[in-house]
Structures are given as C-alpha cells and as structure tokens.
Hints:
Layout lengths: L2 H7 L5 H16 L3 E3 L5 E3 L5 E8 L5 E5 L6 E3 L1 H4 L7 E9 L5 E10 L4 E9 L2 E6 L8 E3 L12 E8 L8 E9 L7 H8 L8 H8 L14 E3 L5 E4 L8 E7 L5 E8 L10 H9 L3 E3 L2 E3 L4 H7 L7 E11 L5 E12 L2 E4 H8 L4 H6 L4 H21 L9 E5 L5 E6 L4 H24 L5 E3 L5 H13 L12 H11 L5 H10 L5 E3 L23 H14 L11 H34 L6 E10 L2 E6 L4 E6 L7 E5 L4 E4 L5 E3 L3 E10 L4 E6 L21 E2 L2
Parallel strand pairs: 13-20, 14-21
Antiparallel strand pairs: 1-2, 3-4, 3-6, 4-5, 6-7, 8-9, 8-11, 9-10, 11-12, 15-16, 16-19, 17-18, 19-20, 22-23, 24-25, 26-27, 26-32, 27-28, 29-30, 29-34, 30-31, 32-33
Amino acid sequence: xxxxxxxxxxxxxxxxxxxxxxxxxxxxxxxxxxxxxxxxxxxxxxxxxxxxxxxxxxxxxxxxxxxxxxxxxxxxxxxxxxxxxxxxxxxxxxxxxxxxxxxxxxxxxxxxxxxxxxxxxxxxxxxxxxxxxxxxxxxxxxxxxxxxxxxxxxxxxxxxxxxxxxxxxxxxxxxxxxxxxxxxxxxxxxxxxxxxxxxxxxxxxxxxxxxxxxxxxxxxxxxxxxxxxxxxxxxxxxxxxxxxxxxxxxxxxxxxxxxxxxxxxxxxxxxxxxxxxxxxxxxxxxxxxxxxxxxxxxxxxxxxxxxxxxxxxxxxxxxxxxxxxxxxxxxxxxxxxxxxxxxxxxxxxxxxxxxxxxxxxxxxxxxxxxxxxxxxxxxxxxxxxxxxxxxxxxxxxxxxxxxxxxxxxxxxxxxxxxxxxxxxxxxxxxxxxxxxxxxxxxxxxxxxxxxxxxxxxxxxxxxxxxxxxxxxxxxxxxxxxxxxxxxxxxxxxxxxxxxxxxxxxxxxxxxxxxxxxxxxxxxxxxxxxxxxxxxxxxxxxxxxxxxxxxxxxxxxxxxxxxxxxxxxxxxxxxxxxxxxxxxxxxxxxxxxxxxxxxxxxxxxxxxxxxxxxxxxxxxxxxxxxxxxxxxxxxxxxxxxxxxxxxxxxxxxxxxxxxxxxxxxxxxxxxxxxxxxxxxxxxxxxxxxxxxxxxxxxxxxxxxxxxxx
Length: 708
C-alpha cells in the first residue's frame, strides 16, 4: 500500500496527517520492518520473508548478516559483500544454502551505512590513492580521488571519510580528513579508536546549552516529596581514579537478625528528560567508553562529574533501593523511593580492604567516622557471597590490565588489575539492587530493559563436552545444565595442573550478555530476573530502568508509559550494539598500548602460557602483563604439525612434541606491528622447556601444517 492509502485507512485526511504518516513509514523502513518497492508502495518485511540485521564482515571477503531478531546468522558470499561494509545494516532474503549448509542471503536493500570515518594507511598504487583500513573487517580499500589526499604521504596513517559507499561494481570512495603520521604513538591510540568505531565524542551545541541551564546545586523545591537521607552515613566505594560516583551504600544490623541495606543511585532521570537534546545524545552514545587516562562520557561533565555525581558533603538527588536481607543472604523485602542524600565519604577499594581486611591501624583511625558501617557491609557481603556460592553463580578470573605511565606519557609498566574483597562487596550490593529492580518492574509490567545472559550455545556446549571428556571430566546433558555444574568444573580445575586450560575452554563456551525487554534471566549469575539499575551516569539501559521505576511508583499503567515493548526491543538492540562498540574500541586501545610497551622489549625473554591454539600456531600470554602474542608454526621446532581441535593442541608428526592450551615455556619477543596490533614471539632456545610436556603423543591427521 502507498502512504496515501494507509493514511486513508487510518482516517488521516489532511496534508499534515499524510506527511506525519510518511515520516513514520520512513522510520519503519529504516528499522527494516517495512520495505518500499519501486512503485512507492510499502510492504511488511517479515511477510515478505525479509530479514533485517547488521553486516559482520570477514577479512577474507565474505560475511554474515546478524539478524535483529533471534534467528541464526545468514552467510553473505563475497560477490554480495561488495556492496556493503562491516557495520552496515541491511535487509536480506534467504536464497539458498551454501556448501556448508548455512542459510545464504542476498541483499534486498541497505537500511543504513556504518559511520563514515575509517582509520587506515594511505598508499599510492599505479598513480591512484587508496586507504587500506586498519580494521581488517573493512575488507575493501577506500579509493582516494586526486586532490582528496589531504596532504598525506604514502605510508601515513590517516582518517578517511567515505563520500560514496561501495556498489556491486565499485569500491568505496573517500577523502582524507586527518593525517595522523607515519608512526602511531600512544597519544593517538584513543583518537584512532574513536574514529575507527564511530564513537560520538563531540557535544552538539543544543546539548551544551541544555546542560548549562542545569543548576550545580540541589534546590529546595527539588527536595519536595523525597525522603531525607542526609543524616544517613551513605558512602561511595570506587577505584582511585574514579571521577563519577553513581552509587552509595549503607548497612546496619536488623532486629531479629540479618541486615537492612540501602543502595542509593544518582538520580539522572530527574535531569535527563525523554525527547530533549541531552536524552537524544545519551541514547546515541548508549554508554560511556573508558580508555587509559581518558573517558568518552555518555553525559556532559556538568552532569557526570557534577550534579549527578554523589560527591561527599553535598546534597544530591537519588533513587534508592532499600532491602531487608536475612542471615542467609536472601533479600526478603525491598522497596524503591526517591531521596536526597549527602555522601559521608568517598572511599576507595584499597582503603576499605586495608581497614577491614588488613586491619591497618592508621587507615582504621582515618575512617573511624564510617568504620562501623563498613564493617556491617563486610558482614553482609559474607552472607551474599555464601548465597552466591549456594546458587552456583559462575566466577571467572579477570583479564583486565592497568597501564602505568611516566611523566612524559609513555607506558612505564603493564600490570594485571587487582581485585580485593572490597570490589566484591560493592559488586554483591549492586547485584542485589539490580535483582530487586528487575523483580519490581516484572511485577509492575512496565516496559523496560533487562540484562539477559543465555545458556551457552548448543554448538559451543557440544565442543565443551567433547573437550572435558578428553580430560576425564563429565557434565550433564545440555537440557539439564545449570550454572552450578560449570562452577563445579571450575572448582575441580583449580586443583589440577591443567586447570588454566579447563578454565579457558569453559569461559569460551559462554554466550554474550545483551539487553532485551523480556525478563529471561542471567545464566552466569544463576538469577531468574536481572536488570541494570546501578549506573545511570554511564549506561543508558540503567536510565531507562530508573524511568520505568518512577512510572511504577507514580501508579502509572503500562499502556500509559512513554515506551512500548516494541520500542524497548529497538532500544535493547541499540544499547547492546553500543556496548559492543565500546568494548571493541577499548580493546583496540589496550592492544595498541600493549604493542607500544612491547616495542621496548624486542629480543627480551618472558615466561609464557599458551592461551589459544590454531592451525597456524600458538597464542601465548605473558601472565605478568596479560599481553598475548603469536608463536607462528614456522617458529616451532621443525616438523609437520597436526591441529587437534578437541584437545586444543598442535602435535608434531615425527617427534611427538605437543603444544596445547595452558602449556608454559620461555618465549622471546620477535617483532611488533603497532598498526596491525600484532606481536610475534618465538621459542627461547631450540626446545621448549615446561613441566607438562605430556609425552610424545601423536594425534589424528587433522589440520596438518608443516614448519617451513
């Protein structure tokens, strides 16, 4: 049907009504829900067997469409991929099966293009300028017309902006908008990530104007109808370098046993109103993005580090969750209310643990005004931890690192990020509040976003079962699997010499957590209902949860709410995508900084642990820095090597040398490519020395590679 006919059916006769209908139809076309044909008529995409999703490209030229809804990925062959780039959104029809029996798609229409800016190296070939993208998933070089090189010289790393997207017959055309130079130092690593991943980082003028009008202090009128918590010694506990404080806690023993816990969260919803420039920009960003020594915030500093930050000794608006916790760590009652608070102290994880764990007298003296309540929190944490263990929540060891910089901004050291029980104390309090929020909104039926972590995918679980059987560990069938079963495997692994290998394989079998309007539970935490309520300064889903709670507290009905379930579905997909975008950008910067650090250690030797195995070699991690590099098969002792996928091992055919996950041996830094973020190692010495060589075992003829 054409727009006029649809408007007529719905009773819109005026020109204004028809124009409004056109705008809505265009929005639905952009979402992939409708398709507009050559005659200008609109059809429902799902009724036409069309699937909307995001293009995920592979450096080899093929790709996949990741559908917006739950079905599996659709294979896109190289000839189809010529007209799209990684990150584009498209509408696809399934036209058959490929030779691996995967559904194969053809692009019907392109819904939207990826952000236009691309970081890469400028080259000149046969008189033509091109930019070879830094992100290998952007599988086509960008053509640079004459006069559009922006002063770049061959070999320079540049930022290019796509001016004409690719077609089936031509590569994308671009212009150079910024020259970063031939060598990329640590100072430019963040800029490269921002440009490569299209992170919004400049504030629109309308946003800055709106933020400027917000008062720096809480006005008396804002305290009306709020519970006054200014005499309650709530405290914030964060890292040393934290600048925005969005959660505070307070705890006291309850009469009859157990505890009374208050989790107070910055009331961002009272400052960021739907439909305003501030809200539009926060939604577009989706999340704050954290880099070493820099952050790209979701909200302007006026809010994130100002009026919304729970700084000590100043009034702040908050949305609170008060919980009654029994002696077994079970939350028996909870309620939500708006309040005004005044933080009693800005504490750090290190301070808190030095006071309650290490019992340092000078720290306890310094914190004496809040020490009783910190000790109450620690006693509560022990109950929460016991409850967590009882339900079998998964507990994986972290892989985060922190960079230590010298006075000139160069990397002086790379160290694993250390967690102590004070981190876990706050984490458990936040989990309790997140669960309470999810249960409250589920009961009220107000549309919102939940944090959903599905069970492991079937194919990954089958691979896990096969691997565990090879190391004499059994787990239940897929339909009977619980998180406690996997936690039991991790506990067994801690007592075994191959424990790191088992831990790594279990971790890789897990699904990715996402945001969705359906309360489908969190497998990893072993929880039936879970949401994100505790970080509205830096996560848009938390802000949406706050708005839903306020609507429910006001007695609002689901059908009178600003957001519908369908709209929440769109926002869930968007927020999941911005979260992945932020993770990828942060990982890019960390990888570049690790390369910059390792460039200073060329030729140096380190103790390494095999963290991954492929047909072409070994991924080896240096435990002290969590830096991973590749020992290519050509750097292994001379032999034909077979890849055993089930045992995650490379095995030499003639000599029986076996290299598998968790093996330890000395490696030497061979080369570093900072642009491609690749580090190559070689074995130190002629033969590997390690405690768990595993004998001279030979496996089947799978994945054969010869060292040449």
